[in-house]
Design goal:
By secondary structure, the protein is mainly alpha-helical. About 60% of the residues lie in helices and about 5% in strands. The chain contains seven helices and three strands, in the order αααβααββαα. The protein has a three-stranded antiparallel β-sheet. The N and C termini lie far apart (about 55 Å).
Amino acid sequence: MSEVSENATETAVRYGRLSDSLGFLLRLAQLQSFADFFRTFEGEEVRPGEISVLMVLHENPGIRQGLLARALSIKRAHMTKMVRQMEADGLITRRVPEDDKRAMELRLTPEGEARVRALMPTFADHESRDARALDRAEAAELKRLLRKMLGVALDGGRTGTDR
């Protein structure tokens, strides 16, 4: 067999310096997680960004739209489109606060709260597979290090300065 044929049939790919690149490894992990997310949530008509918004709204009733967008690193235009759709779907309400007429406060409706509750078992199922190659202690350590890197406290709040 020629050298070209042997290389073409190899199953292992060498990543070289990429195997030590945090950004590259995080991206591969995200792609793996998203693939499982879409398999797990098939038929639920929810995307990762949407479930994140719903879950953060559940934890932060009345949060301002701009703060929510920054916390989840969602571009303003995309957040506006998502919020409008969620409002049209009856999942959230928007309200202009008295102290800042330029801002918008968001809250889940009872239907939105019910949607979050309905999605949580599926979310837990997905989460149980996200770090399947790690034992419990390793998964906890990975999450701890990622929270540290991102400046996110265990309770989900930001630590230090916004990034």
